[in-house]
Amino acid sequence: MLGVAGAGPPRRRDYADELTRAFPAAQLVNAEGSVIDLPFQLPNGRPTALRVSLPSHFPQDHPVLCVVVPLQHPAVDTTGRVHLRAADQWGSGTTSRRLPADLVAVVREAMALLNASDPSAAAAAAAASAAAGGNAWQPGPGAGGGAGGAGGGGAGPTDPEGFLESLSTSQLEALLCDEEALRKAAAQWLQETPAARALEDVRRQNKQLATANLSLSRSIDEARGHVAIVRSGEYAAMRSLFEDLFNRQKAIITKMGPDALLARLRQEVDESDAASDELLERFQSGSISSLEAFVDAYVAAREAFHMVDLKRQAAEHHRMVPDDLMPVWSREAVAAALGHGR
């Protein structure tokens, strides 16, 4: 059993586990298990759920009970919070004796109060809870100013009208005459409202998150140092390799690129044309005596000239036409030009 002597004080998670065992339909709202919804039906058949919130300092702080769906009930205020004496007095000096089973008993009492078929009985229970101090406003010693104290340590309701009605005429006159005492009384009353309690819970959670984030600063600095080491080591080597490959690619394109290929083809065209012209000049000068030998040599020279010139034309056409309109044979012509025999 949780919370027995020698086993150590129960943790917040132990209370949540006890609730989920006692109420099989319970639903965990968050991963921490600090907010639990307990579905149930009202006497009129309307489905709703009782939300049990366990603050970060639970069980030192009291649990917060709210209804998920708005409900008209004497024990439920306009914010949906259920006011129950056992819940509001949870942390009043008896924390060490609060066991998970006690929280289950509080929740069962809240459900019984909400499921009361007699509204007058529910109202009486809510009034008894407020009169017992679970919902009371306790003004400090300075709340009464110089007229003997407005509250005098007495209890008062959480709504402003009820608070004012609980004061005597002399106390009201004292507050009206002492603005500072009125301000302190109003501030102390506001601290006991559901909104103020919820705000305090949010502040505590934000403080915990901020502390956790600050604890990560050292890890972030170490990660930044690792990134700097990687950048200074691997980055320089990879950049050097990239520049080397890029320069090699540039050199190959300079020698074997389309411009270089076209220049070579134009040069071969000029050389073939010049060779055939030279044969004609030699024949005309009488250097070649045989007509048949001249014709064979001249025809071969012109044939070579026209073959190279066709390749040149194909290469120039490939340079002028976009790639998406270029026929397949033009690429084969370029490949053939690259393999032209020396």
List the defining traits of the structure above:
12 helices; 4-stranded antiparallel sheet; Mod_r; rod-shaped; 58% helix; 342 residues; 3 domains; Ubiquitin Conjugating Enzyme; single chain; mainly alpha; endosome
Classification by helices and strands: mainly alpha
- Give the amount of beta strand, in percent: 5-15%
Which bin fits the share of residues in helices?
A: 55-70%
Q: Overall pLDDT, averaged? A: 74
Q: What is the CATH superfamily label of the largest domain?
A: Ubiquitin Conjugating Enzyme
Report the CATH C-level class of the largest domain: Alpha Beta
Rg measurement, Å: 48 Å
Shape: rod-shaped
Task: Please give the alpha-carbon distance between the first and last residues.
Answer: 97 Å
Overall strand count: 4
Count every helix, treating DSSP H or I runs of 4 or more residues as helices.
12
Named CATH topology of the largest domain = Ubiquitin Conjugating Enzyme
Keywords: Endosome, Protein transport, Transport
Biased composition (Gly residues): 141-156
Main location: other
Region (Disordered): 133-164
Fold and architecture overview:
- With 342 residues, the chain is mainly alpha-helical.
- The chain has twelve helices and four strands.
- The chain has a four-stranded antiparallel beta sheet with strand order 1-2-3-4, covered by helices on one side.
- The chain has helices at 12-22, 85-88, 100-114, 119-131, 160-165, 169-177, 179-190, 194-215, 217-256, 258-284, 291-320, 328-338; strands at residues 27-28, 35-41, 47-53, 64-67.
- Mean pLDDT is 74; it is low at 1-6, 129-157 and 325-331.
- It has three domains: 12-131, Ubiquitin Conjugating Enzyme (Roll), CATH 3.10.110.10; 141-191; 257-338.
- It is 58% helix and 6% strand.
- The chain is rod-shaped, with a radius of gyration of 48 Å.
- It holds the Pfam family Mod_r.
- It is found in: Endosome.
- Residues 141-156 have a biased composition (Gly residues).
- InterPro entries: ESCRT_assembly_dom, Helix_hairpin_bin_sf, Mod_r, UBQ-conjugating_enzyme/RWD.
- One of its GO terms (cellular component) is ESCRT I complex.
